[in-house]
Predict the structure.
Amino acid sequence: MSGVDTLIALCRRHGVVLTANGGRLDVKAPRGVLTPAHVAKLKASKPELLRTLGQRGPTSIHGVSLAELKPLAGEDWRWLNEEPARLQAFAHAVMTRRMRERGEVPPDYTGITECAGCGPVPIWVGCPPAVLGCPWCFNRLRGLPVPRHDPVSRTP
């Protein structure tokens, strides 16, 4: 595997989407994932990234392969696939659900809420401070892990 292939694989594992768009390299990343060093590496590798991505196109989005997404989308695949933003959103939802099922906190769950069923749990910013049910309730009801947080410190 070449250096640029390793860089692309690393980005995909962390939910970073790289797209060759003409002469531009479009980078979409969850907040806090890319450090200044990562950005410098992407800039330094831009010409080779554009060549590589332009030749083969994306094979996965948010760490979920297109081959996995297609059967999950079912009859909606054509509709999702005709607009990149729709496919991005769908892949993000699949990635988020998979992370939650493993008890991992998705990168955009940077807030905390007090769930009536689960207690203090990580959640997306903008969620009310207290809720009757949360996405982690599905884990709790199925016996899957639910990450807990100290409500006093309000830190994940």
About this structure: The CA atoms of residues 121 and 148 lie 5 Å apart. Residues 109-156 form one domain.
